[in-house]
Amino acid sequence: MSAMAPVVHLVDNDTRVLKSLARLFEVEGLSTTSSTSAQEFLSVYDASVPGCVVLDLAMPGESGLELQAELKRIHLPVPLVFLSGRSDVPASVHAMKGGAVDFLTKPVDADALLRAVRHAIDRDLAQRACEEEARQVRAALDTLTARELQILPWLVSGKLNKQIAAELGVVEKTVKVHRMHVMQKLHLHSLADLVRLVERQHIAPALGERPIERGPARA
What CATH architecture does domain 7-134 belong to? Predict the structure, then answer.
């Protein structure tokens, strides 16, 4: 996960609003960027930096809702906090269904906005942590041999080593060796850890399919 400080990206065609919001967040120790249009924001946004976007609903050119749709289309799941100059129930419902963190009306309450932004940043950091964990798990799984991958579902089947060995037609020592190598390569310490990993990665091929072939194999 990125160690860089989160940034609050402000998008509003009213420069006075941008300056006011920037002062509010900077007093709270939050870095900001300012854009007067959706296009300007997209041209400068760095997806590697954690944070969120505070954006106006109604802007000339691409609206806030259109920017939300564009971010989804190009797979940039940055959390959004909408601001609107009027209460717009259909738009707020649309924004929230699209995954927005909050939808606030102007003049916005400073405390409510700060809460929404901190929630949005926490959501982004959590998502980035999950993505980094998944990346590390995939990298670890890539180190397993074909036989270790074959035996992996059996290790969380609840069967004893000797039962797995009998099912696969190998000696019990072979199962023990593969279990040890799998645990080491995946940096796990318990069966419970392995079960959680298998569930998160959806590793559930049908047991009994593609049994371990006899003959020498790389451990």
Answer: 3-Layer(aba) Sandwich (3.40)
211, 219 Cβ separation under 8 angstroms = no
Of all residues in the chain, the percent with pLDDT exceeding 90 is: 62
CATH topology of domain 143-200: Arc Repressor Mutant, subunit A (1.10.10)
Which ranges of 53-160 does DSSP label H, i.e. alpha helix?
Answer: 64-73, 89-97, 110-141, 146-155
**pLDDT tens, position by position, 117-147:** 999 999 999 999 988 888 888 899 899 988 8
102 token code pair = 């909050």
DSSP state for residue 165 in the 8-state scheme: H
Q: What is the mean pLDDT of residues 59-65?
A: 90
CB atoms inside a 10 Å sphere around CB 174: 19
> Is 143-200 the same fold as 7-134?
no
Kindly state the tokens that stand for 46: 């760095």
Mean pLDDT computed over 36-56: 95
> For the whole prediction, is pTM greater than 0.85?
no
Domain boundary assignment for the chain: 7-134, 143-200
